[in-house]
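Support request, priority: normal
Reporter: lab tech (M.K.)
Component: structure prediction queue

Hi team, I submitted a job for Undecaprenyl-diphosphatase from Kaistia nematophila yesterday, and the status page still shows it as pending. I've pasted the exact input below so you can check whether something in the sequence is tripping the parser. The sequence length should be 268 residues. Please let me know if I need to resubmit or if it's stuck on your end.
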Amino acid sequence: MDIPGLLDALVLGLIEGLTEFIPVSSTAHLLLAGHFLGFDSPGRAFEVLIQLGAILAILTVYFGRLLKILRDLPSDPRTRRFVLGILLAFLPAAVIGAAAHGFIKQVLFESPMLICVMLILGGFVLLIVDRVDLKPRYHDAMDFSLGMYLGIGFAQCLAMVPGVSRSGASVVAAMLFGSDKRSAAEFSFFLAMPTMVGAFAYDLYKTHDQITAAGAWNIVVGFVAAFVAGVFVVRRLLDFVSQRGFAPFAYWRILVGAVGLAALLTFG
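Reply from support: The job had stalled in the queue. We restarted it manually and it finished. Here are the results:
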């Protein structure tokens, strides 16, 4: 058993769970951490599979809400409209992600310099949007307009560039369209469910032949770490955002991007 490899997997799993649902780009953190740790993941199979831990984390925390939505779906027009909105928001990522999958994985995911630059730029965008007085019109994610759901879905596609952040793109778009901070963050949770499940299933289909028995223990450790850390974040994020806004995440993005850029320029 490769103990150093397991420790790397533990660190990367914690990073996945802690960053997946906050607007700092979990992909960027995973790729940069893996780059500097020298962690070898053929076809990015490890990064793909530990996402399941984060997926199960949000499904676990939101199980009661999801059960209520399923129960109300046949009789409540507002619930049906919300589910339609989630599907509309998911559709652009499903189409564009499948079409551009090879380019994203083989080119964008292999560009640490690009990742650092996008972390910094995205941090400034998030900081500006957080500080502007936008006068929100929506205070519940279930009340967004259908056009707003679709617009958020297109904005989410920007996160196919690592460093942008899926949750960050959807949160910024929702706030610009008139949502308050809490409901913007909560909708990013709901949109994460089909988006992450779809991405996981497609990536698994593409990389299943690169999963080896030697890497199985790494995947198990990373999966469990991502699940535990993900549950912690999902349970606390909405209250944190309501009280502190998104500025702390913006500063963190800028810091990580700047440190990563300096390290790349210094050490390669």
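Residues 48 and 203 are 6 Å apart (CA to CA). The longest helix spans residues 216-244. Let us know if anything else looks off. Ticket resolved.
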